[in-house]
Amino acid sequence: xxxxxxxxxSGIVYGYPGRPVVLDSLDFILGQELVGLIGPNGCGKxxxxxxxxxxxxxxxxTVEIMGRVCSEEKHFRPLRPQIxxxxxxxxxxxxxxxxxxxxxxxxxxMGASRQEADEVVRTVLTNLGLxxxxxxxxxxxxxxxKKLVALGTALALNxxxxxxxxxxxxxxxxxxxxxxxxxxxxxxxxxxxxxxxxFLNKMVSHSxxxxxxRLTEV
Length: 218
Ligand SMILES: Nc1ncnc2c1ncn2[C@@H]1O[C@H](COP(=O)(O)OP(=O)(O)OP(=O)(O)O)[C@@H](O)[C@H]1O
Ligand SMILES: [Mg+2]
Known about the structure:
218 residues; alpha/beta; Rossmann fold; binds adenosine-5'-triphosphate; binds magnesium ion
């Protein structure tokens, strides 16, 4: 595997218990680029991202992230803070009482001081255009606001790689434009799942379609 390779999946097989396989001997290599992942509802896009993040374990195949073979939780754990992962459902990602707590959680967990974490929270909120949201109750936010804050929790860790599951979901036009600016500025490699082809066309170098459990370049 070249040093440029960030993700390498080989022969990945995954099926939920009692269901047909979703991923069927899937191969994928991600270098230093941002690529799109498309495919119909239920084809397995989120499942694939969860395998890359080590949240579910494939029944066969190997996962290599940043040059390391990851087969157990202990292999994934040190890598996760380097990956900006945005869940499809922001409710799965946000669990603190306030927006500022959610944004500070990652940095504090990684050993930042309170002051450093507060600074990160301020910067991220400003970048997202949510300056006044720090003390808001996360649970009470709108769908789009939650999605932006979820993106913020990923950015708060200064990731090296982005894994975004439908980042434009619930976002209005202005928020999508802001998201595009943020992603453009970050210039990070990664994988973006989206049904928004207009957004993908602007953001990614190329895309893959997931169909019948495998990827083909579009
Ligand atoms: N926990 C689960 N238990 C059983 N089946 C599941 C589970 N999660 C997902 N599935 C099924 O696995 C298939 C793939 O689901 P997945 O969420 O990966 O699709 P997706 O491509 O992300 O779809 P969407 O575009 O709707 O987000 C679907 O048929 C779904 O119903
Ligand atoms: Mg999905």
